[in-house]
Amino acid sequence: MKNKHLPYLLILWILPSIVYFLTRQPSLYFIDAGTTVAAASSLGIPTPPGYPSYTMLAHLFTKLPFGDVLLRIQIFSILISLSTLTLVYFFINKLFAIVKPLNSPEGFVRLIATVSALFLSFSAIFWSQTLNAQAYIFTDLLLLTIVFLLISLKNPSKITKTALISGVLLAIAAGGSTVMVFMIVPILIVTAVFYWNQVGVVKGAMLSLAAIICLILIYSYLPIRAMQRPFLNWGNPQTVELFFAHVQGMGLSFNDPITGKVTGFTGSFNSFIKASGRYFYLLFVQFTWVALPFIGFGYYYLYKKNRHLFFSLLSIPVMNLIFGGLWLSGNQEAWFIISYIVFAIVMGVGMGFVTQLLSRFKVKVFDIGLVLALLSLSPLIWWYGKMNHSKSYVMSDYAENLYANLPKDAVLIGIYDTFQAATLDKRIVSKDRPDVFPVMTNMLYVLPWYREHLRHFAPDLVPTEIDSITTFNRVEEYNEMLNFYIEYLLKKERQVYVAYPVFSKSVLVGSNEGVFKPDPKKLKAIPAGLTSKIVLAEGSTYEPKEEEFNFKFKNIKEYKKPHFYIEKGYVSSYNDVISEYVESLIVYAEYLLEDPATGPLRSEASWSSSGRKEQENPTKSQTAEKMLMLASQIAGDSTESLNRLAIAYATQGKFTKTVELFEKLNKLFPKDINIQFNLAKAFFDSGQEQKAKEMFSKIGKDNSQIQQAVSSQLSMIESFNQNLKNYQPFENDQMNLKFYYPEDYAITFAGDNMIKITNNAKGKDELTMLIYSKKLADGQFLVDLSKNLPFVIDGISLGSQPTQMPGFQAKVKTYATGETSVLLFLLRHNDQAFAVRVFPGDSNKAEHFQNILQSIRVLK
């Protein structure tokens, strides 16, 4: 390095370094970051293709004598990015020497190179991935170094040396993000053809062999480490078959029509168009729009002056766009970084060309340089607030809260990246809970090597019977396997905890059946913080504790106002974490409110209460309300969380809150038909019938795919109104009650806030109803209504169950009284509750009492 470059390089190294360290996230990023950090920490084998080069080099940095493992790997990532900025700086200097876009002092050329590199350093994706633990910038640096060497080649006699160095760098790059190697294939092919006469067949074969040997040495890391059985041993690539399956990413490609998630090669034109739109959108916002004209001028000037350089520096973004459009990944935005690095290089040429044009109008070079230097700070100013994740602890909070209530030697069952990142951190990186045995259910079911891997560490915890169960012939098989496995663990006297996504996220592509549904005859699930404790259906008296839901957050503000992530996959993963907190709080609240005779209020039959004793503790309702309020605070703008919370409030008869949440969702996502449909239904349930009809009609008119469901709702409303055609209304302000009843029935007041409706008939033709009205206090729920009713029901209780009542949370209890029965309906709408006694329960006038019940509304 010559001293003339040093001042510029110091700026290029120091300023971004300060910014990076000020904004670095002290907690893990999402998707594969947890696996990558764990692999580097333990020399394990991460997700395909294994990233051996990156893993080994990152491992060296984990030996630094300061900071935690994540900080040490972030230092490695920052050094990689600073090296990339340095490459961009010298690349631009080299291009100026070749195409000479201006006749200014060399110092100005170095200024332009610095400015262009600064634009890159503070661009959104580059900045974000610099502070992440991923191999993308590492790979891009090596690939563009090869391009730099080939472009810098002046003497054909040095092609052999350059090719050898390039081959080694290419092999190391392939040990990073393998698929990115294809981005420079056109350049390699053109270079090989151009210099073929100087290289020849023999040298070409030897150079290729050297690169292949280097690649084999790098990838030999996988089988060598696999044989040593690290806990993170993805694919267990010990055999030739498993090795090639791992490097090819077997089993990681899928297209789920239910969730819309696609990973791997698509070959879809629509997917390509969407990915291309994302590519160009990110290009527009990366450097801020002020940089785009310089990129355009740069390509224009290269086309005019040197077609070889033009096509070389254009081929990389074109290949990147093609691969990024046809091969989808959760880290799609990071795939595009190599394009943005190239654009930063071309941007420098464009700045030189623009300077040349402005010089003709007597604009001083110093003034131009000053403006360019100031412009280079525009992405820093624009993105700093958004990229500042120095107070983000979402993933570390999640790991702590997930493990907070787990007893020693528990088995923890979960699915997908977030769960895996947390469990690997606890077992491998921080090593503070190596006693807990984590199991990924999707991998347990699908991957034989994973079952063998788990058996190596705990032979008695993974029975071989699972192998015979997993035939993949029926969609029910997954749930049967999981029920068998958990029952097996419980009989081994191991305590089993299951993360909430296992109950709701299907692991079967194209089917909703890939979720865990405990067999109520054998198992029951008890809320336990961020997990559900699974116990045997008979004999367990375990009850959840409120302290298990006192989640600890290092920065509660980030849950109310989430940090910005430009990567879609990270936003999705963040929302998944929020959803787990919200789900856990809702499930606990519902558990507190459930009737032991009927089970929980939630629609999914995942939570059994068999064997529970009714608790008369008056604080149960207050605790449930507290949990729901906390869930509402955490939910933020998460679609899944708000939707789940709205349904929970509807289930409890709090329809004002339901409407409020669905209206919020509708404002956030005004084109989501499902949200609009749920909002219309919430309007109807809240008593806003006309508003519901108008919205249903609008939805059905604009969207053919949901027309059938809309027609069904409108028909139900119309049918309901038709049934009441010959009925007369009753209203009472004190009872806050309105309903319709047949004209030949008599109504009398039977006490405070209670009326009697009867047809004065005898026997089975009799229908007598008592309706009692009560306002519920804050923190009271439907269960509180049934404790102090002003009427007595004789008979033997035959049980109770939830029932469907428009606009109400509703339950019905049945009592046997000799040859007949009595029905007791408990209804709730917001803070208004009604108890309705129906005698006889098997009246011949059942249609009348059903119509009366269906017509009950609150006045306000």
From TrEMBL:
It comes from the Bacteria. Signal peptide: none annotated. The keyword Membrane applies. TPR repeats lie at residues 639-672. The keyword Transmembrane helix applies. Keywords: Membrane, TPR repeat, Transmembrane, Transmembrane helix. Residues 602-621 are annotated as: Disordered. Pfam families: TMEM260-like. The chain crosses the membrane at residues 6-22, 29-49, 69-96, 108-127, 133-151, 163-196, 202-222, 279-302, 308-328, 335-359, 365-385. InterPro entries: GT117_domain-containing, TMEM260-like, TPR-like_helical_dom_sf, TPR_rpt. PANTHER family: TRANSMEMBRANE PROTEIN 260. This is Uncharacterized protein. The lineage of its organism: Bacteria, Candidatus Daviesiibacteriota.
